[in-house]
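Handout, section B. The chain below has 531 residues.
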Amino acid sequence: MNAQEPPVRPDAVNDPGDAAGLRVSGLQAFLGNLKNLGVIAKNAFVRHGWPIRSERDRSRAVFQNFFLHIHSTRTHRWSLRPSFTLGLGVMAFGSFLVLSVTGIFLMIYYQAGIPEAYQTVKDLSFVSSSGKYVRNIHRWAAHFMVFAVFAHMTRVFYTSSYRAPREFNWLIGVGLLVLTLGLSFTGYLLPWDQLAFWAITIGSNIAASPREITDALGMTGVFDIGGLQRELLLGGSEVGQGALTRFYLLHVILLPAAAFALLGVHFWRIRKDGGLSRPPDAAFAGDPGVTGKPAFVPSKTYGLMALVRGKTPAVDRGPEGTVASLPHAFRAELAAFMLMLAIVCGLSFFWDAPLKELANPRVPENPAKAPWYFLGLQELVSYSAFAGGMLIPGIVVVGLALIPFLDREQGVSGTWLARGSEKKIFWGSLVFGLASVIGVVAFTVKFGWLRSWYPGIPQLVITVVNPGTLIMLLYTGFSLLILQRTGSTRKGAVALFTCFLSGFLVLTVVGVYFRGPNWNFYLSPAQWPIH
């Protein structure tokens, strides 16, 4: 049987006769089409009616529009509560869009060459009209995106929104976190000033840090994985034109393309997994929603042919408690986006993106600090480049990815800390995490570590036994203790996640405010030596 032909819109018919049966010339038909060009074009692009007056029109508008179709036609009111999502996912995606737009403008002037890179950035900041402000927006949007992605992942964890059927989407989120940090790292070198040059030099040394292990085992001459990683990253043995070209390619093409692809999958999985997580009692039967009317008014009768138990997220989910995505969800998302934009533009107006002197390999920057979100990592690297720069971050990323597969409890999703039942674990873990990292850092500042006590100690011992690995062991032991006492993998995960989060915050604060020249500890920059 032939498939039914789709209906043809009246404006798409080129009928040579009118309603009265009069013949119309080809020229008249052409002029008539030209006169109605605006209406014909609108109908070609906008398939739903306008204005939108009914629930059915709103659903059709979402369903038939490419840009709106990332949403379901209806959104549960629980998902629109500001206290649940905080708008962090929308703000993270919005900052990525701002970065894409401002990055295109910056690419018009930027030249990825030495010393042209520095000169073009300098011209953008001091010669080009509004160039400084565009660069400021790009920089602050990057900072905001890193913060929003971290905060969004934290929100998803503490609301148990990674549980089935959302395990795969949690993995996509971990990948987006890694890509976000990669975008920030690769963009840091592009100005080619002193700050960028020496920060990337530190990063390249971290890439070469496996030599700590291969040197201790006497394998570097045969198997130099650290040197290979450094050469792949820099395109040579030192930070130069090869590194600038590779970082520019990664920053403007490869990593953004990967981020757009993962974002598409991320949004698609949110829809396929039944929307944002919510507790089973988020809506009750007969809940009328915001319109004061039932979600759907049946206009037909149906016959029941069979009962089949399904496995999709739509099973046991009725329309009660939902509202049309247009306009309710879009208003909420627009408000979050405008808030993000206001914060970024405000910061960009008062604080300029830094630009130091032209990069000079002969004059080290002291202290050479990475962006704030890498300073916790840099603090760990100061103890051991391999353990702090590769081993511990690798364990953290793998641990994050495994969370939904190790926590298989059938608890409540979509509420903060399981409606408060995990608050005691959270606060206890926060206190232990803060006390542990502050105590270890204070001990190393006051008394030093193994290298200062035993100058001839083998590097392999320092790689294995250092403040970073000690902090990790303390956190792991505490979470295992919670797991043993409570018998709950979820509470053990809360303890471990909270401890690592508190450690990250403390190490970041130490790196930002208390580390000075030669990475020594100072209570105030006023104590820095004059040089």
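Note. Residues 372 and 512 are 6 Å apart (CA to CA). Compare this with the example in section A.
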